[in-house]
Amino acid sequence: MAASREYRHTEPRWLRATLTLIAVGFVGLLIVLPVIAVFTEALRKGLSFYVQSITDPLALSALRLTLLTALATLAANLVFAVAASWLIAKFSFPGKSLLLTLIDLPFAVSPVIAGLIFILLFGARGWFGAPLARQGIQIVFATPGIILATIFVTFPFIARELIPLMQQQGTEEEEAAILLGAGAWQTFRRVTLPNIRWALVYGIVLANARAMGEFGAVSVVSGHIRGRTNTLPLHVEILYNEYNFAAAFAVASLLALLAVVTLVAKAALEWRIRVEQRPAEAAQEA
């Protein structure tokens, strides 16, 4: 630890200043300035127009659908990610590498392609579209299709936070709990879950941010039906294409505010993790 602290102070001051300037300039140019621009344009016609734009029935419908989609997506991802991570980290089985590859598949597939896949599966001429339609069930161009597409593009986030941590922790604590008479659910609830809780919450924050801002896959399966299948990103696109720029930026500011809340939650989580890790680090140094 002492050697690493000494190394940080041996770098030339001009180098540290240059790197700091590059980092701050990059963040300011690509993150801070766009956010400022969004709120500036949103308020260009005054506060009353801004309030009118974000309280418009179509905007509120898009907001409700966005929140519903994010909630359903997180619930599905939570169940899948915990089960898959526990299986991969704690057990050996044929096809383990294949399962890991499939979990990473959404990172490699364009969201637009993902949307087209659901059209192929559940569209009117898709593999399952006609049988489901005869039962009165509509997937694409409806809320279920939007939720399915969002689940597809977001499900790696939670699993990829949990798998490395659970692999590092090993199986010793679970085995000890079972030897002491604990059942499977009791072992998971009292041993496994407390050890992964912060990684789990961190993955939820990341997945939630992606779910609320997803555009490509949702755009393909939604049908752009106003008041029914438009999420906030799609509603912003429609307003912008209609040259209603102030209203488009006003609605976009809602997404920006949701992003800020997500970042605050992420920062608070990282702070909490550092606080909990300090006693362990102090013990290791001693």
Q: State the secondary-structure class.
A: mainly alpha
Percentage of residues in strands: under 5%
**What is the count of DSSP helices, taking H or I runs of 4+ residues?**
14
Distance between the termini: 11 Å
The total beta strand count reads: 0
Give the low-pLDDT segments.
1-7
Assembly classification: single chain
- The succession of helices and strands, N to C, reads HHHHHHHHHHHHHH
Taking the sheet with the most strands, its summary is:
none
How confident overall, as mean pLDDT? 85
The gross shape turns out to be globular
| Relative helix content | over 70%
- If you compute it from the alpha carbons, what radius of gyration comes out, rounded to the nearest whole angstrom? 23 Å
The gist of it:
Helices cover 81% and strands 0% of the residues. The chain has 286 residues and is mostly helical.
Strand and helix layout:
Elements: H1 2-8, H2 13-42, H3 47-54, H4 57-90, H5 96-103, H6 105-108, H7 111-122, H8 129-134, H9 143-169, H10 172-179, H11 184-213, H12 216-222, H13 232-241, H14 245-285
Could you explain the architecture of this structure?
Helix content is 81%, strand content 0%. The chain contains 14 helices and no strands. The chain is mainly alpha-helical and 286 residues long. It has helices at 2-8, 13-42, 47-54, 57-90, 96-103, 105-108, 111-122, 129-134, 143-169, 172-179, 184-213, 216-222, 232-241, 245-285.
